Amino acid sequence: MAGLASACHGSPAAAPSVTGPPPTGPTPAGVVETPTEAPSPVLGADGDVAVYPSGAVWFCVPIGYDVSGEAPPPCDEVRVVGVDVARLPRPARYRDGTLESYAYLTGILRDGTLHVTNQGAPVPEPSGLFLQTPPCGAPPDGWAKSPTNEADWRAVGAYRRRFPSDVIDDAQFTPARRTPVITLASINPERTSAHLTKAYPRKLCVVRSLYTRTQVFQARKQLSSLLRSTTPYELPYVYYGWGPTITDDGQPHVEVDVLYDTPALEHAIAPQPAGLVQVVPWLAPVTW
Predict the structure, then answer these.
(1) Which of 20, 103, 215, 260 is the most buried (most CB within 10 A)?
(2) Cα separation, 131 vs 138, whole angstroms
């Protein structure tokens, strides 16, 4: 018993070290782990910044502005806080007192409001033509020149009437001046090339379409129904445009232009074939 009394009432035992590695193994029963939230991404875009006489500041998809009017066009798409109005590039003032500028803003989006972390002049657009380099390799002698910058589509039209299911989409690529290259996404590229190469010597690029005509039609139909049920620029999809497009890979796509990406839209398009529907956010994640 004396030993027990000594253990209870003698000098306190040394405190355990807290400098060693954290314990490993399963979480003890009754202890709930708190998940770590991923940090919100920094988003950025060029756009119109409107500073209203009330002090409210809004950021909008760029449409340009004309200060000859009494009041600016409506700009109420994304509320922003933290803008240094004195540092806005080339501000213009309307007669009603509204200040407007075209600027580049970055920030954290919380509940539809952009909390600005950086601002500056608009970012220059990449130079070069849209759909410039065909997705096919150039012929040994290079792409052929044409009398004009416009391709002649008559042979393609005749082929489509004969084989209406083959060509899913088409586009003109222009690698150089007066060098139009007809580019076709076909579910039967061998037959398409065999029938059209003679009509377009060194002017034809045929890629195998990743999608069927039915898949593209169904995607367009679903998006039309989905987006017509909501108001542009507003949740849950915050879209402001959509339509068929063809990208640098020559493949058909359906593009949806949105203010920023939302889980609701990603969930809605999830059943579509991978890559067919492309969501293009105006406020996009910034990579430095």
Answers:
(1) 103
(2) 15
- Helix (H) or strand (E) holding 205, with range, is strand 204-208
Indicate if the alpha-carbon torsion angle 217, 219, 222, 228 is positive or negative: negative
d(CA 53, CA 98): 6
Q: How far apart are CA 85 and CA 91, in angstroms?
A: 9
Does the pLDDT of residue 8 top 90, yes or no?
Answer: no
CA distance 6 to 284: 68
67 pLDDT band, cuts 50/70/90, is low
Q: Kindly report each contact of residues 85-94 with a partner whose C-beta sits within 8 Å and lies 24 or more positions away, as own/partner.
A: 85/51, 85/57, 87/119, 88/49, 88/51, 88/119, 89/120, 89/121, 89/122, 91/51, 92/65, 92/67, 93/67, 94/67, 94/69, 94/70
The conformation of residue 169, written as its DSSP 8-state character, comes to E
Neighbours of 287 (CB within 10 A): 7
DSSP β-ladder status, 204-208 and 181-186: parallel
Question: What is the DSSP code (8-state) at residue 263?
Answer: H
What's the Cα-to-Cα distance from 56 to each of 53, 89, 129, rounded to whole Å? 7, 18, 38
The Cα 108–Cα 176 span in angstroms is 41
What is the rounded CA–CA span in Å between residue 252 and residue 264? 24
Give the pTM: 0.79
Q: Measured in Å, how far apart are the chain's first and last C-alpha atoms?
A: 70
For residue range 116-150, list pLDDT tens digits in order: 999 999 988 765 557 999 999 999 999 999 999 99
* Mean pLDDT calculated for residue range 154-176: 97
pLDDT > 90 in the chain, percent = 75
